[in-house]
Amino acid sequence: MPGMKNKKPVILDELIQQQLLPFVRTPSRYIGGEFNQIKKDLNKCDLRIALCFPDAYEIGMSHTGMAIIYEVLNRQPDIAAERVFLPWLDAQEIMKQKNIPLYTLESKAAVKDFDVIGFSLTNELCYTGVLNALDLANIPLRSKDRSEEYPIILGGAGMANCCEPVAPFFDMFLLGQAEDAVVELSKFLIENKSNSKKDILKKAAEKFPFIYVPSLYENSPPKISDAVVDDLDNSVVPEKPIVPFMQPVHERISIEVMRGCPGRCNFCQASFCRRPVRFRKPQRILDIAKKAYEATGFDTIGLLSLSTADYPYLEETINLLNEYFEPRRVGISLPSLRVDVQLKLLPRLAASVRKSGLTIAVEAASERMRKVINKPITDENLFAAVEEAYKNGFETVKLYFMAGLPGETEDDIKNIVKLCFELGILRKKVCGKAASINAAVSWFVPKAHTPFGWESQQSEEYFRRAKEIVLDEKKRYNARFLNFKFHHIQRSVLESAIGRGDRKIADVIEYAYRSGAKFDLWNECFNFEIWLKAFEQAGLDLYQLAGRKFDKDEILPWEHLGGPDKEYLFKQLNDAAR
């Protein structure tokens, strides 16, 4: 990338203030300057990285992973990392009309003038957001069309482990956990900045086992390893989180208490790709919480992990946090609860936990189906835990279920309503009144790097019938305390078709974007007809790809991209079948 070091980025501050902000509905998305943001002199830094979350500001500002990488990189004195989010539709229209390119929030610098643009890839339906961001930045969408003057386009986060569908749009991917790896990569880029982009990509692929450069491997790519953070306790966290100007999806102090999951749910990509299990010590968590509270004033602390109830120091941690934060009226949020014997203790422990409701990911309504998916929850423990919650003042229970799982019967679907009803009336034993039960039903999407990754997805018609069964059963029980919400069926079908696809899907994604697909995770923007036509134009059948069942000996489009051993996963699949 010859000459990039001396290239001064274009600062668009005045243009933004005069030509953009007065004309948008929510200017707080675009102004930057929030409390605790980190702003450096871009011209004095050896490497400039734009961290792009390809969705709206309020979504990206709630993403803990991006906040961590922002902190990690900006602790390096010679690196500047700045945030970029996808402008909403009204702002995009104005930016196009007035030739305002995509810019970073900290310096209001044109994204195109950075050395690296790093995208957080969190879901299959964020891919059009990546193309949208590149387009707004006036950067060619495909790697092969970008000359030396353009930044290196880097992808990371969960979808990097199944990135072939978007491989033609990226120069490289960083697989796994990035805290340490991104610093190593950044130092390498500084050392090799005078080299050509082609040379940099080749050397990076040779040097780092966690770097995947798609252009080097049209056929027979090598096995790429996931980067791992060995010492979670001492890893970098944001001590002064940025305080958003507008309400984000989650406004709280987010602290990861454990990484990895001791469980191995057969549908869960994260539990297989984010191993091994590591813990933070209670005192470290308290120290993080104190510093973040002093820097933000947030009134909720979220203890995050794939399964917080499996964190072995939960009782000690809650006691420490309660002792310090209860007098300050700061509550504790415990998401991702796993039901086992330990869960009986949680409501009693968490005296200051928000009483808005207890959230439990049950996934399947019967013990038989839970054995199939490898989620060892017994009805006995589930009912004991929920009853204990009622005794400690909880009035609402939120339950997560998944329909369309391998081996599912119609009775399994009906049992979702039956279980919810029984858990609701259980509260009558405690106070004579039923609890409010809010159940979210999602549709099974087979994921790469999981035992169920070989399995087919049920048809759209099957999911619609399952929804009808649940609603009919609810009507039969005539229980007003039962509330059901359902995930978008067509989005789930699309996730399956894209998520397990190969590079042919890139043509589909680009056609969909150029036909108007944007913000596909938003109900008001999602247009399934565009995607149907995009698959048709590429000569592919969306439903056939979504419902595809892979053979054991088949080369999977993702098997070279980190994750556990293929044979291990297939053994887990056979165990589930038995």
Features:
578 residues; alpha/beta; Rossmann fold; Transcription Regulator spoIIAA; 4 domains; 6-stranded mixed sheet; globular
Give a structural overview.
It contains 21 helices and 15 strands. It is an alpha/beta fold and 578 residues long. The chain has 4 domains: 4-216, Cobalamin-binding domain (Rossmann fold), CATH 3.40.50.280; 252-353, Transcription Regulator spoIIAA (2-Layer Sandwich); 355-497 and 543-578, Transcription Regulator spoIIAA (2-Layer Sandwich), CATH 3.30.750.200; 505-539, no CATH class. The model has no long low-confidence stretch (mean pLDDT 91).
Task: Determine the N-to-C terminus distance.
Answer: 55 Å
DSSP helical segment count: 21
CATH topology name of the largest domain, in short, is Rossmann fold
What low-confidence regions span 5 or more consecutive residues with pLDDT below 50?
A: none
Q: Strand order, main sheet: write it out.
A: 2-1-3-4-5-6
CATH architecture of the largest domain: 3-Layer(aba) Sandwich
Helical residues, percent:
25-40%
Instruction: Kindly estimate the percentage of residues that lie in beta strands according to DSSP.
Output: 5-15%
Number of strands: 15
Number of domains: 4
Largest sheet: 6 strands, mixed
Spatial shape: globular
What's the CATH first level of the largest domain?
A: Alpha Beta
Radius of gyration: 24 Å
The helix-and-strand class reads: alpha/beta
Mean pLDDT: 91
What is the fourth-level CATH superfamily of the largest domain?
Cobalamin-binding domain
